[in-house]
Each structure stands twice: as structure tokens, then as C-alpha cells.
Amino acid sequence: QVTLVQSGGGLVQPGGSLRLSCTASGSALDTYCMSWFREAPGKGREFVAAISWSDGHTYYADYVKERVTISRDNAKNTIYLQMSNPKPEDTAVYYCAAALVKTRLYYSGKYYVSAFNYDHWGQGTQVTVSS
User: Fold this and answer.
1) What distance in Å separates the CA atoms of residue 26 and residue 48, rounded to the nearest whole number?
2) Percent of the chain with pLDDT over 90
């Protein structure tokens, strides 16, 4: 069982910066893919970025890849999402998620993009980009 606790978020100025944190607890975390998703009002949950806990490889959604960085701190069991130049359309509830990697095709097959493939979720944190 994996438990995810998020922190960060809140009100952010357009053009500023944003950092979200997600601390995981549980065993065999290096067998998991860790990701960030977001859900804006009236929209479905969409993939933002993913990181392989075992080797640190990162994967990004095309619409944000120029502005976000996902990273991990193994010593703290924590992943981060940093966003530069946030825009009002980035306003959403952001979720941290963990998925047990069950197939060697997980990354090449882009299983990480679908929220249905995730077993564990953080509590969500509201990010509002507004002046």
C-alpha cells in the first residue's frame, strides 16, 4: 500500500512560478511510476508529467513540456512538480499519483498517460493562477 501526501499550490501570479510536492510512504517504491495529473472545472483528469522512481526517466504532456519539470528526491521519498510562467488556464486541482509498473512496455506504451492505470492518489491541491 502506498500513501501520497501533497503540499504546495494555492494562489499563483501569472508569469510567476509554482512548486508542488508529493511525499510517498510504502514499500518497494522503486517499482512505481509517479505522476502528476490535473483536473480543471468541467474537464476530465489530464496527464501532466511522470517520472520513473527506479531510474528517474521523465515524461511530459506536450502542452506543458516547455514549462514544467518533474523530479524526485529518493532520500525524502518525495516528487516535485515545478512550473514556470503559469497561466490562468493552468488553474486546476493537481493530483499526485502512483502506479505499480506491471509490464516492461509501461513507458514505451505510454500507459502512464491514463489515470485509469494508477492505483494510488494524493488528496489533491488547488492551484489558482490569477492576478
Assistant:
1) 23
2) 86
